Amino acid sequence: MPPNRRPRSVQLPSREEAEALLKKMRGDVEKNENYRTKSLRIHGAICAKCGREFDSASLNLLTVHHRDGNHHNNPPDGSNWENLCNHCHDDEHSRELLGNYLAS
Ligand SMILES: [Zn+2]
Ligand SMILES: [Zn+2]
Fold first, then answer.
1. pLDDT at site 25
2. Nearest ligand, CA of residue 82?
3. Ligand nearest to the CA of 47
4. Residue 6 lies in a domain
5. Can you give the CATH number for the domain in which 78 is found?
């Protein structure tokens, strides 16, 4: 549960700030598309866990998992990426959450 889910009064950003933010968001989306495409090319359209194979019709169910949990760590050789189907990806992250919960 993120700590600041409560609605709070927000200050409207200035025009410049809003534009900078938008630019940044667009850049992030592009980068995200990029690493997914790269990861699919490197690791193939197959789930690394359950071995399910994907074609162009089902490819949207295949997601890229970051092994170290850091979405900004995207080495071009794909060593931090793992292609997981949405089911295995959920599973992977619920394990992590449970681990964090048990460790805290
Ligand atoms: Zn899977
Ligand atoms: Zn993940």
1. 86
2. 2
3. 1
4. no
5. 3.40.1800
pTM score: 0.66
Q: For the chain, how many structural domains are there in total?
A: 1
How far does the centroid of ligand 1 lie from the alpha carbon of residue 57, in Å? Answer: 16
The residue range of the domain holding 85 is 24-103
> Are 84 and 65 contacting, i.e. CB atoms less than 8 angstroms apart?
yes
13 part of a folded domain: no
| 1 assigned to some structural domain | no
What pLDDT score was predicted for residue 2?
A: 61
Q: What angle do CA 40, 45, 49 make, to 5 degrees?
A: 105
CA 29–ligand 2 middle distance (angstroms) = 17
Ligand 2 mean position, distance from CA 17 (Å): 30
